[in-house]
TrEMBL record:
Belongs to the GMC oxidoreductase family. This is Gluconate 2-dehydrogenase, membrane-bound, flavoprotein. It holds the Pfam family GMC_oxred_C. It comes from Bacillus thermotolerans (Quasibacillus thermotolerans). Residues 217-330 form the Glucose-methanol-choline oxidoreductase N-terminal domain. PANTHER family: LONG-CHAIN-ALCOHOL OXIDASE. Keywords: FAD, Flavoprotein, Oxidoreductase. InterPro entries: FAD/NAD-bd_sf, GMC_OxRdtase_N, GMC_OxRtase_C. Residues 428-552 form the Glucose-methanol-choline oxidoreductase C-terminal domain. One of its GO terms (molecular function) is oxidoreductase activity, acting on CH-OH group of donors. The lineage of its organism: Bacteria, Bacillati, Bacillota, Bacilli, Bacillales.
Length: 570
């Protein structure tokens, strides 16, 4: 039997960056907010014994349990999809704070070009620059309109950095100075400058100094321990929702957090949502939580899945090109270059998640694409994240996989290898999409989400170009041997690549081509707001978190307006 609970103003489905921001902003204004998180509670106290590579980086302590819920995957619509039995290509976070706990901390603003990519591309290169099967579209908002929300997120999390010489305009500097300059970051910058490029320090949520944000929450200075990616921060120095927006929401007295609460369906009357149904994963009890407004603030995959399962919005059909839920799934490509040094040694085993330097010269439309068979590009960076001994053992590609020579070269190159990598933009393609799997179900009897995705010619051409530019920088850095990365012919769900999935519930200016408007309000259900990277109409050349955070503040503003006036906000 389902237990029906008293109605509240707002319920959030997921309590990470987006759910925490929505909760904090609306609870500060007096609205009663319930946050439903299907994982367990977490705080800095849980990470006091965090420096365990096997437990966290290999056994995925902070990640989703794929024996209970996963996705299915195929490359093409005519293939049978199979479940991802172990986390591979991307790592789906679970628990209070979500992926905001185990991220590295790179925090960029997407470029002005990203928000108006279709109109800017067609204006400069013509309507036929990309093929008809690439479903690129503008986001229904401009970089200039997004500026105040970027600024608010950066001040909330205390970003340490310096502005990009090429990026979009900023009203003022970052809240805290850049992280330390190291031998490795300086060498990258010097080489980039010699090639006529414009390097700068990565904007980092691993803070260079102790900082108190506008809500009064303190974020501590980074200790450069090297345990950021896949780990929580016991110092409270890698900004996370758990040390910023969630405590802010809790202090208002208007926010109730419920952990171990797995939402399985949105209840609605066809035009408005009325409640969410969730399962207490510890007891198996089912509950209905009514609310005036519902914010889907979980990960990309789950936001899309919930709408499809709940039959809210029109599912995307790749054959006709109609429908919007599941449309424009995008990933990222990761071109780069590895440099092997015979005589020089580097301390790559110390660092921080977002300690590094980058160039934007081959990102967005900062370079001429007239004679190139792709659009966009990627940021090219060197990062000193703190390599860990179990998962890092780089040797030249002609080295045997075992035996005396493998051992000798493993020892020799242990601290003589540097990597330059890029986050390459991903353009939406007609046959890359999300829908429900007709065969497989999760532990609660709900259909699994099915991912249909493969690399496109756009991906492969961009990859080759940016990888070659990365190799040029590595050669200028003085590497004795440079190995340029190569893209696979087909995407595979293993090994790990990046957790930067986007799309599925995309934003835009018209309901015919998008699921939500520029306040992240659903066209088909005015009291439902779908917040996160699921709203991205394509994926850019950066880590998505900064843009996710900015959109969450935009959505919070929209939800506050809706609470007062109702109706469509645009």
């Amino acid at each position: 039997m389902v237990t029906k609970l008293p109605k509240v103003d707002v319920v959030t489905v997921g309590v990470g960056w987006t759910g925490g921001i929505i909760a904090a902003e609306l609870a500060k204004q007096g609205l009663k907010v319930v946050g439903l998180e299907r994982g367990k509670p977490r705080s800095t106290d849980d990470f006091l014994m965090i420096h365990d590579e096997y437990r966290y980086a290999i056994r995925y302590e902070l990640m989703q349990d794929t024996s209970k819920e996963t996705i299915t995957f195929r490359n093409k619509p005519n293939q049978r999809a199979l479940p991802m039995r172990q986390l591979g290509s991307f790592l789906l976070g679970e628990g209070l704070g979500g992926a905001g706990v185990h991220w590295n901390g790179q925090n960029f603003r997407f470029l002005p070009y990203d928000f108006q990519i279709k109109s800017m591309t067609e204006e400069k290169y013509g309507a036929n620059k990309v093929g008809a099967d690439y479903t690129i579209q503008d986001w229904g908002i401009t970089y200039e309109e997004m500026g105040p929300y970027f600024d608010k997120f950066e001040k909330t999390i205390g970003v340490s950095g310096e502005p990009s010489p090429l990026g979009g305009q900023r009203p003022d500097k970052y809240p805290t100075p850049p992280m330390k300059e190291t031998v490795i970051t300086k060498r990258f910058k010097d080489a980039a400058k010699k090639l006529g490029l414009n390097p700068y320090h990565l904007p980092s949520a691993n803070l260079s100094e102790t900082y108190k944000n506008p809500d009064g929450e303190q974020i501590n200075a980074c200790q450069y321990c090297g345990f950021c990616e896949r780990f929580g921060c016991e110092y409270g120095a890698k900004t996370s929702p758990n040390v910023t927006v969630i405590p802010t929401a809790q202090k208002t007295g208007n926010f109730e957090l419920r952990t171990h609460a797995n939402v399985t369906r949105i209840l609605h009357d066809g035009t408005k949502a009325t409640a969410v149904r969730y399962v207490d994963v510890l007891t198996g009890e089912e509950f209905e939580q009514p609310a005036e407004m519902i914010a889907l603030t979980s990960y990309v995959m789950n936001n899309t899945k919930l709408l499809l399962v709940s039959e809210l919005g029109t599912p995307y059909d790749p054959n006709s090109g109609t429908g919007v839920i599941g449309k424009n799934y995008c990933y990222q490509i990761l071109p780069g270059a590895t440099g092997f040094f015979e005589k020089e040694r580097f301390n790559t085993f110390m660092g921080a998640g977002a300690l590094g330097a980058t160039v934007d010269d081959y990102n967005g439309d900062f370079f001429d694409h007239s004679d190139l068979n792709f659009i966009h590009g990627g940021s090219i960076s060197i990062t000193q994240t703190g390599l860990r001994p179990i998962q890092n053992n780089a040797v030249p590609p002609d080295t045997p996989k075992w035996g005396p020579e493998f051992k000798d070269k493993s020892i020799h190159y242990y601290n003589r290898v540097l990597n330059i990598g890029s986050q390459g933009a991903s353009m939406p393609f007609r046959h890359n999409f999300l829908d429900l799997d007709p065969t497989y179900k999760d532990a609660y009897g709900v259909p699994l989400l099915r991912l249909t995705y493969n690399f496109t010619e756009q991906d492969k051409n961009l990859y080759k170009y940016v990888a070659e530019r990365s190799a040029e920088i590595m050669k200028e850095m003085g590497a004795d041997e440079v190995v340029t990365s190569q893209t696979a012919e087909n995407y595979n769900i293993v090994p790990y690549q990046t957790t930067h999935n986007t799309g599925g519930v995309i934003m835009g200016a018209e309901p015919e081509t998008s699921a939500v408007n520029n306040y992240l309000q659903m066209w088909d259900a005015e009291n439902v707001f779908v917040v996160g990277a699921s709203a991205f109409a394509h994926n850019g050349g950066y880590n998505p978190t900064g843009t996710v955070g900015a959109l969450a503040y935009r959505a919070a503003e929209g939800m506050l307006k809706y609470s007062k006036q109702g109706g469509s906000l645009v």
